[in-house]
Amino acid sequence: MEPHPTLAGRLARDKQVSASVVHAGVLAVRNLLDDITLWGWAERPQRRLVFATDVPRMPRPLPRGLAPDVDGALQHEVARLDDVFARVGITLLRRAGLRLGELLDLELNCVVDYGPTGTWLRVPLGKLGTERSVPLDADTITALDSWVTQRGPQRPHPNPRTGKPCDYLFAERGQRLKGWRIRKGLDAAVDAAGLTGPGEMPRRITPHTLRHTYATELANAGMSLQGLMALLGHVTPEMTLRYAALASPTLRAAYDEAMGKVRKLIPVAPAGRPAVPTKVEWIASEFLKTRLTGGYCSRHLAADACPYANVCETCDNFVPGHEFAPALRAQLDDIRDLKADAERRGWTSEAARHQRVVDALDGHLQRLDNRTHVEARS
Questions:
Q1: pLDDT value, residue 104
Q2: Contact at 8 Å (CB) between 278 and 336?
Q3: How far out from the chain centre does Cα 333 lie?
Q4: H or E segment at 121?
Q5: What is the pLDDT of residue 60?
Q6: Residue spans of alpha helices (H) in 152-236
Q7: How confident is the model at residue 280, as a pLDDT?
Q8: Count of alpha carbons within 13 angstroms of residue 327, beta-carbon side
Q9: Nearest to residue 365, comparing CAs of 334, 333, 335, 320?
Q10: Which helix (H) or strand (E) holds 150?
Q11: 290 in Cβ contact with 303 (< 8 Å)
């Protein structure tokens, strides 16, 4: 029995293959086929076998930062941690938007005072091979000073990129500090703050969650895409655009403005009564109104004109019957009133629409009258 193709490993297991593994596998096969075609191998396929549409799309979830109340509760407990390294490191991750690896790679001379422009943190080359500077606030500078004061002299360690000795900021007892103490400090702060997730289990907050929170806070405050991209050390705008989609103040303002207009247009009906109770009130209301043979349509202004309004009455295939002549005449009278109402409001396109229906109904009624005369004479 062959293993299920979606299960991980050479033998069937309960664990599903992740989307990233499937994505990488399909890309590897496509690249191999493209390469052997480029090399001119005799065994190459005679036509393309894997197309771009065959490569599964990776899920692109939005970054998940902490809500302001959760962030505040967490930072309150972080400030009370006994481990100075965890306390300072978590503060720096949150206030400078660093990756955990960037935090651990900071050198002793990473804090630079530029005078009028304030104090900045020089972030070394990270996973994307970019170096950047991040402005620091007073609380973060105080936290860094508290660490440097108790740090004491440490021996240098070779830089993994250059091999040259570096005096790393976060070193203790002659050894570079590890990220597990940051994670342990976060877990302790989560427990102390009583932050829980599904099933009342302690909420899982990672060092990278603090970076997401930092970026989301700045995006919500209206920072430009270019500024946020520079602070985060992103090399492409696509990486930063994910944060621009989070609770954008511009998008929220547009939503509130639109909803304000819609709420003004939606009639509030008394209990037990229709929203537009009478013909008189319907004609006087501020709607894109359409008079139908069998009833009325009240379309909100925010929805724009209906593309199907009076589509039957104005259709060349519409054939009226004698029994509907009274309904058509009543409809024609109402539409003339609607045209006059639209002209008074300055709705030129609505007035023109109603005029087209008037012309169509006039023609239908005239044909009915002519047919009546012919039948009477015969």
A1: 92
A2: no
A3: 49
A4: strand 119-123
A5: 74
A6: 180-193, 207-220, 225-232
A7: 65
A8: 12
A9: 320
A10: helix 138-151
A11: no
Residue that has been written with the tokens 């004061």 in this structure: 149
Q: Provide the CA 313 distance to its chain's centre, in angstroms.
A: 43
Task: Please name the amino acid found at residue 62.
Answer: L
Q: What share of the chain is helix, strand, coil (3-state, %, to 5)?
A: 50, 10, 40
Residue 310 Rama label (left phi>0; alpha psi -120 to 50; beta): left
For residue 259, what are its two tokens?
């909803």
pLDDT value of residue 10: 52
Whole-number pLDDT of residue 299: 67
Top-level class of domain 68-248: mainly alpha
Q: What is the pLDDT, as a whole number, of residue 246?
A: 67
| Residue extents of the structural domains in the chain | 1-59, 68-248, 279-377
- Output the pLDDT for position 64: 84
How distant, in Å, are the alpha carbons of 59, 160, 334, 342, 350 from that of 309? 41, 71, 15, 15, 11
Going by the DSSP 8-state scheme, the letter that residue 270 receives in this structure is P
Residues (pLDDT < 50) of the chain are 1-4, 6-8, 268-270
Give 50's contacts (C-beta < 8 A, 6+ positions apart).
Answer: 26, 29, 30, 33
Is the distance from CB of 126 to CB of 105 less than 8 angstroms?
yes
Residue for token pair 């070193």:
171
Question: By three-state DSSP, how is residue 231 classified?
Answer: helix
Name 202's bridge partners. Answer: 196
